[in-house]
Amino acid sequence: MSLTVAIFLFIVPLLFLLLNLKRCSTKKIKLPPSPYKLPIIGNLHQLSPPPHRSLHALSQKYGPIMHLQLGTVPAIIISSPDVAQEVLKTNDLVFASRPSLVTANKLFYSSEDVAFTPYGEYWRQARKICVLHLLNSKRVQSFGAIREDEVELMIEKVSQKASLEPVNLTMLLNSLTANTISRVSLGNKHSVEEGASHKLCKLIEELSAFFETSHLEDYFPYLAWVNAINGMNERMNKWFRDWDSFLDQVINDHVFLVLAPKTILIQT
Questions:
Q1: Which pTM value belongs to this model?
Q2: Which GO terms describe its cellular component (predicted)?
């Protein structure tokens, strides 16, 4: 990379940052208590892993309602049950929407699923469909035996391996999730080493890794080009293609079962 290009890549984001800081400085908003912020990165340096412990330590000093500046993104941290009830129940419509995340936009059809789509009419309709056809009490009870069976199998695996070798709980929990989803949605029972359940487990593991990764674009939108350079965009695009293909196969299998001619065997 030439010196001119390097200087250009440094100066352009810096100019955007300075303009953003100037624009924000003209707006005086009364915010909750906040730790000392550094220029550009704000409070990101204070969120050492695991982040929930860092947030707990900060809340002990700054109170149950705290403001953190995560790069260019302001965030309000709630760490009290009473305040959480005010936010999530009493004033839930005010705080019901979701932030725009790179991973959700890339991997979930521009955040059009029920978990990540912003609050609005689309979300209400998606939630209604989900509750009526998947999460109603009758349906949940019908899946009870499957959940109990898979949990028992996982506990049995832990018991068998615990005395012989370290137990990879992440893999076992992903296997539990994949096998349960496979039996509920695909109507079959596979071990994690075979068939659709194996593919689903692999997709879940990769998805977890994407969500565990911090993306600069989430905190500094003007640095979206970084994911194009480090290969993250291509890896997420590949996962999306694999996920879309997997869902298409599941749908086609269900359609085939519905439309396939029924064979009647008559024994004489």
A1: 0.72
A2: membrane
